[in-house]
Amino acid sequence: MGIHFQNVSFTHAKRSPVRQTAISRFSLEVPDGQIVAVMGPSGSGKSTLGQLAGGLLVPDGGTVWVDGVDTKKRGNRRILLQKIGYVAQFPEHQLFEATVVRDIGFGLRGLRMTEREVADRVKRAMESVGLPYERYRDRSPFRLSGGEKRRVAIAGALVRDPGIVILDEPTVGLDPVVRIQLLDLLKRIQAANRITVLCITHDLQGALEFADRLVFLDNGELAADVMISEMTPACEIASSLPPTPLIRLLKELEAVFPGQIPAGLVREQALLDFMAERLLHTKGRGGV
Ligand SMILES: Nc1ncnc2c1ncn2[C@@H]1O[C@H](COP(=O)(O)OP(=O)(O)OP(=O)(O)O)[C@@H](O)[C@H]1O
Ligand SMILES: [Mg+2]
Questions:
Q1: Among 83, 191, 207, 230, who pairs with 37 as Cys (CB 3.0-4.6 Å)?
Q2: Does residue 42 have its Cβ closer than 6 Å to ligand 1?
Q3: Given the CA of residue 51, which atom of ligand 1 is nearest to it?
Q4: How is domain 3-230 classified at the architecture level of CATH?
Q5: Full 3-state SS string of the chain
Q6: Residues within 5 A (CB) of ion ligand 2
Q7: What is the pTM of this model?
Q8: 39 CB-near residues (< 8 Å, 6+ apart)
Q9: Domain-by-domain residue ranges, the chain?
Q10: What residue's CA is closest to ligand 1, atom 26?
Q11: Which ligand is nearest to the CA of 44?
């Protein structure tokens, strides 16, 4: 399923003195199955764009089509709910049910499913985000770690099997290892189900590793649109630049583990895995 923004504008608090135009003349075509990272300074309109893509806000000008469905038409609300999984900024604040299973299953209410079907769907969503069903089903969502809560919220967005998932800063506030685990997980879910992902983030490193495309917003306008695979290979420009902190870290690790660093260990995730295994002894600590 794709998302198509055509000349979209949106102003918050339209009839008040604090009216604020958040999105202006924004056009973008996101094809089926693409992972798009949306970046830009604070206040540039990223969350507003995510809400427009999710049908939670409707544009004042222009049109947003989600899988060909115009989000502005009221009658389309139900259809959009089925197509889109939306995870808000700090989604853990929206957990409210007494158990993990009930929280994730909330998204299936009103779908005329048997209890058994609901349980199966919830179980599948939980396993896909790495929360073993039996271990977590009756836990209170409020007594989970930050990373676990984030997973519950993502499972809640996946439980309807949406074709599009919109995530507003899914990794913010998580420790680096958990952050990479979560990105890896999202990538695997996306690959397995070929869903389209719009991921709002301030994490350039994560975006470069996991997205297909980077979209930069500036003051509500599209400032840049970059396909990651078409970027100039880093090695062509790196020789003339001072080493990045990541490369310096790699050199430090080479000094500690001479001859043991695999060639091509330049991705942050691979480096973190290596450090987790050799230095932190946390490998396999699945309990994010
Ligand atoms: N409910 C609201 N009422 C009035 N103005 C708003 C409202 N929500 C957002 N805005 C304004 O719209 C603009 C875009 O906000 P938005 O939340 O989309 O930015 P953002 O890029 O997600 O920022 P951040 O990185 O801080 O999350 C900002 O100037 C913000 O102050
Ligand atoms: Mg935001």
A1: 207
A2: yes
A3: 18
A4: 3-Layer(aba) Sandwich (3.40)
A5: CCEEEEEEEEEECCCCCCCEEEEEEEEEEECCCCEEEEECCCCCCHHHHHHHHCCCCCCCEEEEEECCEECCCHHHHHHHHHHEEEECCCHHHHCCCCCHHHHHHHHHCCCCCCHHHHHHHHHHHHHHCCCCHHHHCCCCHHHCCHHHHHHHHHHHHHCCCCCEEEEECCCCCCCHHHHHHHHHHHHHHHHHHCCEEEEECCCHHHHHHHCCEEEEEECCEEEEEEEHHHCCCHHHHHCCCCCCHHHHHHHHHHHHCCCCCCCCCCCHHHHHHHHHHHHHCCCCCCCC
A6: 46-47
A7: 0.81
A8: 46, 200, 201, 202, 204, 207, 214, 215, 216, 217
A9: 3-230, 234-280
A10: 42
A11: 1
Q: 269: Cβ below 6 Å to ligand 1?
A: no
> pLDDT digit of tens for each residue in the chain (288 aa)?
999 999 999 999 988 888 989 999 999 999 999 999 999 999 999 999 999 999 999 999 999 999 999 999 988 888 888 899 999 888 778 788 899 999 999 888 877 888 899 999 999 989 888 889 999 999 999 999 888 898 899 899 889 889 999 999 988 877 777 777 778 888 888 888 889 999 999 888 888 888 999 999 999 999 989 888 776 655 555 566 677 777 777 788 888 888 887 766 666 767 777 777 777 655 444 444
Two tokens, residue 13: 């608090």
> Which one of the ligands is nearest to 38 CA?
1
For ligand 1, atom 17, the nearest C-alpha belongs to: 47
Give the closest residue to 40 by CA, choosing from 214, 226, 232, 179.
214
Q: Is the CB of 13 under 6 A from ligand 1?
A: yes
For residue 143, which of 95, 88, 91 has the smallest C-alpha distance?
Answer: 95
Structure tokens at 95: 């957990």
